[in-house]
Fold:
Amino acid sequence: MKKIIMTVIALAALFSFSCSKSNDVIKMGTNAAFPPFEYTLGTEVVGFDVTVSQLISRDYGKKLKVVDMNFDGLIAALQSGSIDFIAAGMTATEERRKNVDFSEPYYLSKQTIIVKASDKTVASVNDLKGKVVGVQAGTTGELFATEEIEGLNVKSFKTGIDAALALKNGAIEAIIIDELPAQEIVRRNVELKLVDDDFYTDEYAIAVKKGNTELLNSINKTIEKIKADGTYQKLIDAYMPLDGDVKIVSIEDL
Ligand code: GLN
Structure:
């Protein structure tokens, strides 16, 4: 009898331990191929969104776990509950609002065009007509290229880096992608250049499962607080420095 009671107590302890353990963690879904917002450094996922998410988790009283996956799988993962929120430079579009709730916007971006440095045919988005254009699957760049501008031959890639490789080896003629990852791609590839044109604005926001207002309110509070107390500007300066010398921020140092 004593043995049984001991076993029951041990099992109960184990059970509550594993429960409290998973309850202590909040999972951020992202696609770590989108610098400076999220990218890998060795085995670690780092970037602006990761640091903001660490601050969100701290305020929410939980430990952050970053889950890296394809961008076009993020919303399904949120809906199935395998992640708690998405921080992935995700644009708060009306279409996505049908399936998720978005925080207040935390970053204003836009779509940009990348072509070969030697290209003299593309000065604006209209010059892409008839060309083979690479985009990232499931992004606003893809949406714009397929739905808002006619006459493009659109090819979708898992990441902007894959699209950049295709552009370099001549499989595609241009890329439409968010501004900061585009700048990073061009910085790393002298044979590519940016085309200066304004045609699509992206407001990045954090997504939670529809109806999860408790988490959403907490996220909004953190965003509001870091914007007001100067932390947000420190993160911009660190992850988007004008000289290109990015510094990874530890939240303990903020
Ligand atoms: N901002 C774009 C979108 O929401 C791209 C985001 C990304 O590729 N991480 O679709």
Residues 16-20 have pLDDT under 50 and may be disordered.
